[in-house]
Design a protein that fits this description.
alpha+beta, six-stranded mixed beta sheet, three-stranded antiparallel beta sheet, 4 helices, 20% helix, 29% strand, globular
Length: 255
């Protein structure tokens, strides 16, 4: 990696360790199909053959296992760069073999890579027949502002994932919701080291209620019929898109 970009081969393949400088300081990242995978950060891209892509571009063109591995590399390398010295005694930290962790050789302080859980929610409402008919989508005041996304946010200390869903929906769009149903999870490299998104589907309690945004974090929120969703949706490699597609698929199945 150079900054937040990855070196890839012409077809998006991962470069081989043997094809890179022998003095490279490698970090273990796990395995892919049983083969050990390593990562490193370089100060310059000069002299390294291949294409340099940021994670979004890379994830958009490779299978999910490769995208997930690249996301892990981005998170681990970024976290390690930010944890160079011990916060207790200022000694330079060393890596813990086989772990995403560092340790102080002087005072023995152990620093594992901490996770930052966040939730993303597909808020739905029923139609006349009671089946899911509409999906709530929002547009943010930051980031890809043209994209219609799902309500999302970080879990607070002492809060369950389900409670975080209810709080985020109430804070962002002013709606009360029912019981969240777990969908799945995804490490999300773009939000920083250790971020994992947990996805839920959750019904609004009052189908007649309309969303209200504060104009700061969100600039717009609307109910969309499942058969008339906008084109500017989250990318196909994101759990947000998986949630949206799953909601549409479930609604289309005959009861």
């Amino acid at each position: 990696m150079a900054g937040r970009e990855f070196l890839t081969g012409p077809a998006g393949e991962i470069p081989r360790v043997a094809g890179l400088p022998a003095d490279t300081a490698w970090l273990p990242l796990g395995t892919l199909d049983g083969v050990p995978v390593w990562g490193t950060a370089v100060a310059s891209t000069e002299g390294l053959p291949g294409r340099w892509l940021d994670w979004r571009a890379y994830a958009a063109e490779v299978p999910e296992p490769l995208a997930a591995l690249a996301g892990r590399a981005l998170q681990v390398v970024t976290w390690r760069a930010a944890h160079t010295y011990c916060g207790s005694c200022r000694t330079e930290l060393t890596d813990v073999p086989g772990e995403a962790a560092r340790r102080c050789p002087d005072c023995d302080r152990y620093l594992p890579m901490q996770l930052s859980p966040a939730v993303v929610a597909a808020v739905v409402r029923p139609g006349v027949a009671g089946a899911v008919a509409d999906l709530l989508l929002v547009r943010h005041a930051y980031g890809p502002t043209r994209v219609w996304a799902l309500v999302a946010g970080y879990v607070e200390v002492g809060e369950s994932l389900e409670a975080a869903v209810r709080r985020e929906v109430a804070e962002e769009v002013g709606l009360d919701v029912g019981e969240p149903v777990y969908f799945g999870s995804q490490p999300w490299a773009m939000s920083g080291p250790g971020v994992t998104l947990a996805g839920f589907t959750v019904p609004v309690t009052d189908p007649a209620a309309e969303p209200v945004v504060d104009g700061r974090e969100l600039v717009e929120a609307r109910w969309f019929p499942l058969d008339a969703l906008p084109e500017a949706l989250p990318p196909a490699y994101s759990i947000s898109r998986w949630l949206i597609d799953a909601t549409v698929t479930r609604a289309a199945r005959p009861s």
